[in-house]
From TrEMBL:
This is Ribonuclease P/MRP subunit p40. Pfam families: Ribonuc_P_40 (PF08584). GO terms for cellular component: multimeric ribonuclease P complex; ribonuclease MRP complex. GO terms for biological process: endonucleolytic cleavage in ITS1 to separate SSU-rRNA from 5.8S rRNA and LSU-rRNA from tricistronic rRNA transcript (SSU-rRNA, 5.8S rRNA, LSU-rRNA); tRNA 5'-leader removal. It comes from Aotus nancymaae (Ma's night monkey). InterPro entries: RNase_P_Rpp40. GO terms for molecular function: ribonuclease MRP activity; ribonuclease P activity; ribonuclease P RNA binding. PANTHER family: RIBONUCLEASE P PROTEIN SUBUNIT P40.
């Protein structure tokens, strides 16, 4: 009966909303993007727009590449050559592919050089490494988190700590995973993932891009200064968040009597725009690419436009070990961690950050 009650429970979801201006020196927009490392889907919606500018379209097409490496041993990440080539000279992210965070062993490499291992109890004990119980384990601890600072680890390759980690990865418990990797190169040397991991099965991949024009779209009326909205004047940020989820999920918002799939409709007050441009990018997308997209959308109003706002939404990998920064992330019933920027024509913006049951409060 206790198990049945838990299944019926509605999992906790947390939505944080705030407003600011891109010109404010205390604005947190860059920090929020740069610390959300594992991005699976990026979408933006531009009302009163039928076609993208060439500059924005080129930017969208340049969000890749990323790489898929099969059966990559963990010890490859702790070599001095890898750290010197990819971590010290850029921003490198890696995430195990096709692993379930609540059930499987999962690994992530953060851009700051931190290697995060989320391990089941048996594997954790076999590695001989020091970690801590997962914060979402419950009464019976079944998952452990190991965090390794690669920059510190490789300062002295003869240290006992490096020897222990190397021994664990190579001899004690050699672990291999399929990985997704992405690298933003800030150095002058042209090293590539393809050549570095050529002895393994590696594929270069490009994000999938879907472009569409929405006709006669009913949109909520918003006022940049009113997060809570004003009755009969403007909608609340929470109502906007739900509406965007429906738009990005291609939900029919007509609320017709014979529609048995969804009765959801656009919040009121609303207005109808003749056309809106929707772009969705799916893949392994680095924060640096998202920063460029946001910056370009902020300059969308450098010339007069009919659109009162544009929006940029980012969805994280459901099975990544972290959400923002080093905040531990779990799945439970959803695994969501995402954020949305609502960009107004006066450079004000709303920032909405959402996480699921097994997550800390967004930063």
């Amino acid at each position: 009966m206790a198990t049945l009650r838990r299944l019926r429970e509605v999992p906790r979801h947390l939505l944080v909303c705030e407003k600011s201006n891109f010109g404010n020196h205390k604005s947190r927009h860059r920090h929020i993007i740069q610390t959300h490392y594992y991005n699976y889907r990026v979408s933006f919606l531009i009302p009163e727009c039928g076609i993208l500018s060439e500059e924005l379209k080129n930017l969208v097409m340049q969000t890749g590449p990323y790489y898929f490496v099969k059966n990559l041993p963990l010890h490859e990440f702790i070599t001095h050559e890898f750290i010197s080539t990819f971590i010290k000279k850029g921003s490198c992210c890696a995430l195990t592919y096709n692993t379930n965070i609540d059930e499987d062993n999962t690994v992530a490499l953060l851009p700051n050089g931190t290697l995060i291992l989320s391990l089941d109890k048996d594997t954790y004990e076999e590695t001989g490494l020091q970690g801590r119980p997962s914060q979402f384990s419950g009464r019976k601890i079944m998952k452990f988190i190991v965090s390794i600072d690669l920059m510190e680890l490789t300062l002295n390759l003869d240290s006992k700590k490096y020897e222990r980690v190397s021994w664990s990865f190579k001899e004690k418990k050699p672990l291999k995973f399929d990985f997704l990797l992405a690298w933003h190169n800030t150095g002058s040397e042209e090293s590539t993932m393809m050549s570095y991991f050529s002895k393994y099965q590696i594929q270069e991949r490009q994000p999938k891009v879907a472009l569409s024009t929405l006709r006669d779209l009913q949109c909520p009326v918003l006022q940049s200064s009113e997060l809570e909205g004003t009755p009969d004047v403007s909608c609340r940020a929470l109502e906007l968040f739900d509406w965007l989820g429906a738009i990005f999920s291609n939900v029919d918002l007509n609320n017709e009597p014979n529609n048995f799939i969804s009765t959801y409709c656009c919040p009121q007050p609303s207005t109808v725009v003749a056309k809106a441009y929707l772009c969705t990018i799916t893949g392994f997308i680095l924060p640096e690419k998202i920063c460029l997209l946001l910056e370009h959308l902020c300059h969308y109003y450098d010339e007069p436009k009919l659109a009162p706002w544009v929006t940029l939404s980012v969805q994280g990998f459901a099975d990544s070990p972290v959400s923002w920064g080093k905040n531990e992330h779990g799945f439970r019933k959803g695994g969501e961690h995402l954020y949305n920027f609502m960009i107004f024509n006066n450079q004000d913006y709303w920032l909405q950050m959402a996480v699921g049951a097994n997550d800390h409060c967004p930063p």
